[in-house]
């Protein structure tokens, strides 16, 4: 089953009250309602704050002034599939159009659709064309002689299309010779704008009974799971809305004396988010445990290169390693972690159970009280309880976390440019320098190709160049007989013989080293016999850990005898040879090794699918 199919099956249903002109989180038996037609999974959220103004500025730019549809106090946005960031704008329960970030032109655009497009055409607002055709269909090219009335753009803008009869509507893009390519078409249907203009407080009041029921179920769930496992409880606090609600529910269920908050400061959080996490813990009177990754990311970056969606070394270095140490320190006998994970956020989370164990934190039972909550449930509950939400949401950020996350769309990074230009410039400067050094070209930065090792097809169609640079620890290896020679490129640790000899102790039944010779950035290992292919892989692992270590200490987290520590004199790590039991586990838990090997595998040519004629 594809990700889209999974999300479609997890569709959120948002209803609209025709009388009150506001969203209902469940269908009303007493008031006339209709279901809002949202793109899957339909996890819409309120359009509020500075982002509300930003969205309407983009809309006004398209229309050259006020839009033809009303500007309500209550409006929603809902993410839709697109090569980059795109959101449905919902007014009076109807989709007025799409706000989207155009990768080619690097600008925000508005595409009128459905109720918004029809109203624009009726009022002759924006760019439009009335055509003398019996119908419209997707993919059809409207020729110049079929247009009976129009206001067509000179540049690249969307055009609202309608048949002369009024039976069909559509939206298109301009082609040469004043032709219009129909991107989407639909049959006309009765539509109307509603009369009332309520605010969000009224929406909360009308949904109060539903929200209290959601709260009661979540509180009951927390008490049941706490009683079942009888472990210390902490809330994984991210600084976002979902973990805020989870903390609020946990305190309601168990009391603040039985709840702690764990915040992972990756070193890539917004300054506001770090301050917010500390303030929220104080607000609820709970102990805050702060797992701090420090400069792990920036220390690893020269070795690993930029992270990618299919090359997420950053999570191991800035999250898993630091959280694991904090959990082992504060919860040595295990713990119950309450997390703000919702099934509508991704296909993986849609398939995740409500209670699970984390592979990276074996002693921790994780549970999500808000697993079945939609974004609208979360936001209206925040409004109802008047919870102090992170202000960054009001600038359009849908998820708060690492500000340069490769999972971000370029539109989200453009919001970063607007809100935090210093951070944006810092990252862009690095990417431009990296691209220049590796001969990657301007497109690699412009289209955000750094976000993948293997870009998806919709991105590939936009880009001319598909050049990729090797990421991870860079080295050349030459094996001849009993000798294996390495040339190391940009190592992070001082290259000395003692380093590799020290880490060699981690191996179980290793090859015996006869000699180690270091010359500049070259290391030659001579063994007492020739290494097999599998043994050469182990040698690679030890060499990478010896000279490309980024000091994240993930290996130390897995060491059963606590034999690994930072080598303050030479950099990297060192192994206590008297306590090491040579289990070799650390050589398979190093993020630098793991992702270097993964990247080398991904760079191999992919097998071509052959089609056999029948």
UniProtKB/TrEMBL annotation:
It comes from the Archaea. It holds the Pfam family PAPS_reduct. SUPFAM superfamilies: 4Fe-4S ferredoxins (SSF54862), Adenine nucleotide alpha hydrolases-like (SSF52402). GO terms for molecular function: oxidoreductase activity. Residues 540-569, 571-600 form the 4Fe-4S ferredoxin-type domain. NCBIfam families: PRK13795.1-2. This is Phosphoadenosine phosphosulfate reductase. It comes from Thermofilum pendens (strain DSM 2475 / Hrk 5). The lineage of its organism: Archaea, Thermoproteota, Thermoprotei, Thermofilales, Thermofilaceae.
